[in-house]
Amino acid sequence: MLLSESESENKFNLTPQPENSMQAKNTTPAKSNSAILATNLSKHVLDVTNKVGTNKIEILNDLNLQVAQGESVAIVGSSGSGKSTLLALLAGLDVPSSGAVEVAGQPFSTLDEDARAAMRGAQMGFVFQSFQLLPTMTALENVMLPMQLANRKDAKQMAMATLEKVGLAERLQHYPKQLSGGEQQRVAIARAFAPQPAILFADEPTGNLDIATGERIIDLLFSLNQQANTTLILVTHDVQLAQRCRRTLTLFNGALQHEALQHGQLSAI
């Protein structure tokens, strides 16, 4: 399921937009050396619960977005605004109803699932609120897995080093059921970091962590972004986390409304 439960249930329960708020135009971005380029992106689903007829529910509407290589971008918005749907489309986990997504200047959303999966494996890392760890594998094996699938000879070395960075050097041989929720999320974060992806997608990456661990993970996220020139795109309700990004984009009713830059200025998209 690509939409979170809260987004599916609350799609039309958004807080009305004030009349004097900024209404930004989703102008088509110019092509450049972008990590991610979304053009005229729309997504709708059919409401089959309507007994009278079938209605089309608009989730995203004619959205344009450009993310530069090495940039950090936070996507915020109320429940039901389409944040998780946008993340899924940018990552190729879902396909748009119309419009297109390019990754590093190459067509992405128009590829078939196998081709999108291959590109994800080669260029992308993921961190979600749900840990998605394999229960029959140890922490070390879970982190090694994506690199082993890519035939990386340094899989074990990179996995051990990254687990140490997230504070789990003593938990390498523990299985998920032997770890706390916070520890499981740190394993998932290490799994995303270890292959050194070009693009890292994060959906509420610190949502299940205590404050101290969350702050450490935030530091790791931005260390990766800055040192490895990794592009970071995250969905969050954490204002402090969003402010660490170079840009904060707000979604309202399936459209990008405004952009907050790191120095506090607000500008239309």
What would your notes on this structure say?
By secondary structure, the protein is α/β, with parallel strands linked by helices. 30% of the residues lie in helices and 26% in strands. It contains eight helices and eleven strands. A seven-stranded mixed beta sheet has the order 6-7-8-3-9-10-11, with helices on both faces. Helix 4 (139-149) packs across helix 5, helix 4 (139-149) runs parallel beside helix 6 (181-193) and helix 5 (155-165) crosses helix 6. The longest helix is centred in the C-terminal third of the chain and has 17 residues, at 211-227. It is globular. The model is unreliable at 1-25 and 264-269 (pLDDT under 50).
Oligomeric status:
single chain
**Extended strand count:** 11
Count the helices. How many?
A: 8
How do the strands line up in the largest sheet? Answer: 6-7-8-3-9-10-11
Q: Average pLDDT, to the nearest integer?
A: 82
Element order: H for helix, E for strand:
HEEEHEEHEHHHEHEHEEE
How far apart lie the N and C ends?
30 Å
> Could you tell me the strand content as a percent range?
25-35%
Radius of gyration: 19 Å
**Largest sheet, described in full?**
7 strands, mixed
Poorly predicted tracts of residues: 1-25, 264-269
Shape summary: globular
Structural class: alpha/beta
Proportion of helical residues:
25-40%
Summary, kept brief:
The protein contains eight helices and eleven strands. It has 269 residues and is α/β, with parallel strands linked by helices. The chain is globular and about 55 Å long.
